Amino acid sequence: MSRTRAAFSLILLGSLLIAGACRPDGETRSGSDGRLEIAVIPKGMTHEFWKSIHAGAVRAGRELGVDILWKGPQKEDDRAQQITVVEDFISRGVDGIVLAPLDDRALCRPVKDAVTAGIPVVIIDSGLQGRDHVSYVATDNHRGGVLAARRMAELLPLGGDIFLVRCQEGSASTMERERGFLETVLSDSPDLRILVQDQYAGSTTETAYQLLENLLSRFPDVDGIFCPNESSTFGGLRALQEYGLAGKVRFVGFDSSPKLLQGLKEGHIHGLVHQDPVKMGYLGVTQVVRRLRGRTVETRIDTGVYLVTRENLEEPTVKALVNPDFSVLAHD
Description:
Helices cover 44% and strands 18% of the residues.
């Protein structure tokens, strides 16, 4: 650690100890009314997935009587901005942080700085190297990739040529999905031939669209495509529609949005591996508050993963999953 950063951590820790009046149960009075302040930091601010995370976090905050501070980078590839957001919340002296790290290494140092300053951190959605965080609340992303591969095998029982589209390097969640998909195809479906497995869609719908447009121009006879997150799935859907291949190429994606669900209903998407982001946001906040109140915290919580198809879309449990209640955000 540089002398500047070390001095920053020592000064910050001292200021928190002086300024933070403690309750008998160990809570730190951060807000003007003495309520706990919990910072929830997503990977980005635009996708439906993060809106669901936010809804879960706000619901937990209301139930537990704590204030939720929601802020993250605008784009899901802006590691520097996410680091700045974490550092700003440390300087503010929040009581706890719930973080979905953009990079499993780059966010290690900011998390360590938070812990040094006496701020517990819960990691959600995507893994982080190191052991400084108190809990990890997320989907079993490897299993999500396995479900996608099995769905692709069902859709192409006689085999075929497929694309494995990757998201971006350093994103632990999507890397696990890609690994689960690739390993399952190689072990269980030898008749599925992977034409592409080393191309990255990037963090936006537009970059994903551009990649898939290029790949479809090179391999117009592809039989199946797997995309590992919301933006890459929507970019892939747009490219297939543009090329007149929507519904003809077997397409399995990840997460959902109104446009992706419409694509599923129209038969342009043949499966969406779905997480439970509302539950993830809710339990992320719950875990950090439990830690602050001196209660037992689970070090790893699996929030579940599900395969959504046109056939099961109207089932009550699936409908609740893909149509989360955002009314809690109306007055947040």
